[in-house]
Design a protein that fits this description.
Blueprint (H helix, E strand, L loop, with lengths): L6 H6 L5 E2 L5 H6 L10 H7 L1 H13 L4 E3 L7 H5 L5 H22 L7 E6 L2 H5 L13 H18 L3 E7 L2 H11 L7 E5 L1 E3 L2 E2 L5 H8 L5 E10 L3 H9 L6 E6 L3 E3 L4 E3 L7 H11 L1 E4 L7 H10 L4
Parallel strand pairs: 1-12, 2-3, 3-4, 4-5, 5-8, 8-9, 9-12
Antiparallel strand pairs: 6-7, 10-11
Helix pairs in contact: 3-4, 4-6, 6-8, 8-9, 11-12, 12-13
Length: about 300
């Protein structure tokens, strides 16, 4: 694949950094959707797709350069547990792209350049037990490939501009995903790990080893992390910048802690200060910046207002 087919690279030639969207699921909850379900935001896809369209529209209206689709928790296996057949599951996953595309088109010229990133959540998200923050699933490569392939095929067929491999806790899973991506040589993807700390991904593998294994992959649009405490973002970016020239992506969560058993959040939210620390992230080398769980369009808009490039 030629890197000229990488839409992130192309857009970064026009803009100093890309503003990602923020939380989807917690915005859906704020608008009244019930996500108490193993399918999480994919439940809303089944029952209230107009709410997903509404959230995408809200982010495009404040100037987001990218919408991440509602397919993070969507999978053939997950839908099957609800009695949904594979053909319908594939169509539902395609629908996540169509909803974002529709919101982009309806928002007008301000969003016309924006990218649609097809969300590919980790195997642990399907397990719905928080293992996307641990990474030791006890499954082999073949099982991971069989799980991920239908979603990749669906998102690409629906026209996602780029894929978002996100909250990936293990190097094994990251390698599997990029090996699958090679079956689609015109497609690119970003890789966002979940983190144990500023220098290790969730399973404990050093960032240096991850970059050594995947950092030069020609289909890598960006590399970084998501759904981690913003307090370690600057140190993480600084570490990563020393290891790679690939664009760095960060979209932390609010700083609160998620309990996968009770499905609740606790602790102090620090996302209201994102706009104060995001300029540090840019200065350290981040070129795709946004928010993950518990962040809002208003907070993402303030990032845009504060990260001004002279």
């Amino acid at each position: 694949m030629s890197k000229n087919n990488n839409p992130v690279e192309q857009l970064l030639k026009e803009k100093p950094y890309l503003l990602l969207d923020g939380a989807l699921a917690t915005e859906l909850e704020r608008h009244g959707s019930n996500l108490e379900d193993p399918l999480w935001s994919a439940r809303v896809l089944l029952e209230e797709p107009e709410q997903i369209h509404r959230v995408h529209t809200d982010y495009f209206k404040i100037g987001a350069d990218c919408a991440i689709t509602s397919s993070y928790q969507a999978s053939v296996a997950g839908f099957s547990s609800r009695g949904i057949k594979e053909d319908e599951a594939i169509e539902l996953m395609k629908q996540t792209v169509y909803l974002a595309q529709q919101a982009r088109a309806e928002t007008g010229q301000a969003a016309s350049h924006a990218l649609i990133a097809g969300s590919v959540g980790p195997y642990g998200a399907y397990l719905s037990d928080g293992s996307e923050y641990v990474g030791h699933y006890g499954v082999d490569d073949a099982q991971l490939e069989a799980f991920h392939r239908p979603r990749l095929e669906a998102l690409i067929a629906a026209g996602a501009d780029v894929l978002a491999f996100e909250t990936i806790p293990s190097l094994q899973e990251a390698k599997v995903l990029f090996r699958l991506l090679e079956e689609f040589p015109e497609q690119s993807a970003w890789l966002a790990f979940s983190l144990r700390d500023a220098t290790h991904i969730s399973e404990g593998t050093p960032l240096s080893e991850c970059i050594e294994s995947l950092g030069e992959h020609p289909q890598m649009a960006a590399i970084g992390a998501n759904c981690f405490p913003a307090s370690i973002a600057t140190d993480f970016i600084t570490t990563l910048k020393q290891l790679t020239d690939v664009p760095i992506i960060v979209y932390p969560n609010s700083g609160e802690q998620y309990d996968p058993v009770s499905k609740t959040w606790s602790g102090e939210a620090v996302c209201t200060a994102f706009e104060d620390v995001a300029p540090e992230w840019y200065a350290a080398g981040a070129r795709l910046i946004g928010g993950c769980c518990r962040t809002t369009p208003e907070q993402i808009e303030r990032i845009q207002q504060k990260v001004t490039i002279g």
